[in-house]
Amino acid sequence: MQKYYAVRRGKNPGIYRSWAECKSQVDGFTGARYKSFTTEAEAKEFLKGKDSYTPKTKTNKSSDIKDFDIVIYTDGGSRNHGNVKGGHVKSNDRAAWAYHINAGSKVFEGTDGEFGATNNRMEIMALIESIKRLNELKLNNRKIIFILDSQYVLNAITKNWLNGWKRRGFKKADGKVPINVELWKELDKLLPTVSDKTFEWTKGHATNVGNNRVDELLNETMDKM
Known about the structure:
alpha/beta, Ribonuclease HI, Chain A, Nucleotidyltransferase, domain 5, three-stranded antiparallel sheet, 7 helices, globular, hydrolase, RNase_H1_N
């Protein structure tokens, strides 16, 4: 599918026909504003209008991303039969995760796919892989904000579900083992490696350009599977 990449704030604002061209205009540009569209008309409207780069939380409060050294967006998605009421995931259903790390002067991205996985599994994987990349880049000691649209992952961290499971030997209050327990264990080991971290929710498939970018990445991955 042909896409149009609109750069409203960047080195050279305008409309570009590939992500590579768009990326070259926003890498290292503080406060860059960009978004992809399926029609040129929509891209032109974006150049004229306004967008919200700062995500909203459920409490209608939001962090100023300028207060952070690094902004990370993560997302997971799936195209499986389990997304339909009464359906079940099949072994050949496609799923993928993606992350986008904005480190000011540099941008780092990653994505991969898996057959037969759920959306929730991919959401956890996206966060895990983003933290692994941070450690590889030796950026884990910076002031970092993670922005994601998964209440499933956010609640486990911010509402201390993960800590509770760990205290009970990675079991829930009812004695059952959490789904994706092996990933939760891995995430539990990785979280302490990021010294100064904030987690925030954003509405998916809306106006947040960072969230839209990771959604685009994971869908490109599923297209290729």
